[in-house]
Amino acid sequence: MTARFPLARPRRLRATPAMRRLVAETRVRPEELILPMFVKEGIDAPQEIGSMPGVHQHTLDSLRKSAEEAVGAGVGGIMLFGVPAAKDERGSSADDPDGIVQVALRKLAADLGDEVVLMTDLCLDEYTSHGHCGLLTDTGEVDNDATLERYASAAVAQAAAGAAVVAPSGMMDGQVGAIRAALDGAGYTGVAILAYAAKYASAFYGPFRDAAECAPQFGDRSSYQQDPANAREALREVELDLAEGADMVMVKPGLAYLDIVARVAEAVSVPVSAYQVSGEYAMVEAAARNGWLERERVILETLTSYRRAGAGQILTYWATEAARLLR
Ligand code: PBG
What we know:
Its EC number is 4.2.1.24. 39% of the residues lie in helices and 17% in strands. The protein is α/β, with parallel strands linked by helices. The chain has a single domain (27-326), classed as Alpha-Beta Barrel (TIM Barrel), CATH 3.20.20. The longest helix is centred in the middle third of the chain and has 18 residues, at 144-161. Ligand PBG binds at residues 121, 123, 125-126, 169, 205, 208, 221, 277-278.
């Protein structure tokens, strides 16, 4: 016998905005958003990044203004990237106290250090002339262990300049342990490490390489970043980073890797963040400009999806705008 009416009507709980709000399982909050920002040495006006409309390489002044806006909107964290005027083989400005990131960080820490969590990307690619994330051997390979010493020194410089969190993104083996030891040895036991634990060799980083002017001059990053084909390997990377002392872990990119976010979030008890990377930003902005997507809805939908997958914190270039939309 067939029922005259459907036995269950899930639509009842979708009928009105008030009902949908009441039963929503996932919410995105401004406090959980982290804004990545770029500061460039030697420019006197902010420069918009061609492949990331609305995102700028900042001067020290415009950085401060934009950071204040982000904080005013309720954004919870800022991730700082530096673009030095001059680069060399060893990425000297990464650990120079007068390097652009350290200078910018000291200013931000003085102005906003109590109101927002200041984080720094800890890598060499923004600072090396060859654009790789580490030091090179004579034959042009990335030298893992020699690179660790550079990361350790950069971590101490960033901590001294006021970073509350350092975020190693170079995918060298042992990087978290080396950085933790260096920070502790220099007395920075309170500085936390957010490990870019599962970072894939992704084409979605394309526009970032314009933003940070760090496209590798030869080869690619596949010998250190993860193969997009692997999921279980991400869990191993996360385990290793936690064993070495990571306080938080990140999955990157986000949207194409939400399965990884979900698996990592289930596996660990530390905060898990995910990075909505430059290519994701650029795709949506480009489609919206053509009238092919509803920009704001897509932004909020993707952020909701990150949270639904299990991300606690989300790094996004839309952080300030999204925080305002969520108010
Ligand atoms: C490395 C770094 C990269 C990004 C963040 N940190 C580039 C890379 O690994 O090639 C990419 C961020 C983005 O695409 O938005 N320092």
